[in-house]
Amino acid sequence: MSWSDTLASARRDDAGRITDFGHAADELAALDAQTVVSPLGQFGLIRFSGEETAAFLNGQLSSDVRTLAADAAQYSSYSTPKGRMLASFLVFRDGDDYYLQIAAELQPAIQKRLGMFILRTKTRPGDASAERILLGVAGPNAAATVAAVTGAAAPAALAVATAVIHGEHTTVIGLSGDRFELVVPAAAADSVWQALVDAGARPVGEPVWRLTEIRAGAPWITAATQEAFVAQMANMELIGAVSFTKGCYPGQEIVARTQYLGKLKRRMFRMHVDAEARAGDPLFSPEMNGQASGQLMLAAPSPRGGFEVLAVAQTASLEHGLHLGSIDGPALSRLDLPYSLD
Q1: Strand, helix or coil at 3?
Q2: pTM for the model
Q3: CATH 3.40.980.10 is right for the domain spanning 1-263
């Protein structure tokens, strides 16, 4: 069976993204009760190869790529000279190659833009999305499921392990919140998927995985939010995506100034709203005199109804209340993040 055959039963939206495998509400409810597995086609992979790759990426991204060990992953971002994020990444290695996981809709333009600055540097970018399939595993028993399939202990958050599954080299990345990503050669994707299902994982669509990202407080820049936020507005430094001690990169002066001027005026919050929501939707608050206080970074259906969201907004607006779409729109209520904003 091919990978496309494996996904034939999935339902897709107009953009081709997998929404569910036939029972959207049940899939959302399953997240808190059992292990789930999701194809992560909403992401693409840019591979950089060459002996000067680490130095090149270190001069472009917000994290310190030079410190990235072979058994670790790190979040990062890429910004305009004015410090506004063009993309966010999960960066990991496979041997001497570096992989940048990015929102698939942004990959072509960002890969091209990064390539413009290579000049004589000994590195080269390539699209690895077709040759490497990303699978997400989450839930209260996700670690045990991954261990059963790989034959080794599941890695801790932002740790990376390798495994041989059905004779194929697979990269396993630990993420916060009982989550894991498997980076699988395309030829083995269907067999690894089936092994996870046989081990008890329930197939779910992209919205369920997006909900896990929201609960983990992991921001992903998409087309709807490009150039909307400086890194700290999206809590990027709190998840290890920003280095304040390395050399220059695009937007570094703005990021540094934002950090050292004192208390941030905007932050990213996890919230709930009893209405449909999507990335890029504006947020309003009474004290802003009709101007938007912020906008949504990510949004996903909640098992309890409504939507859970990551909202970037003026911190002062929290005490006055945030509303979706207009000052008279549905009110948002704050939920906990797994890390402190202080």
Answers
A1: helix
A2: 0.96
A3: no
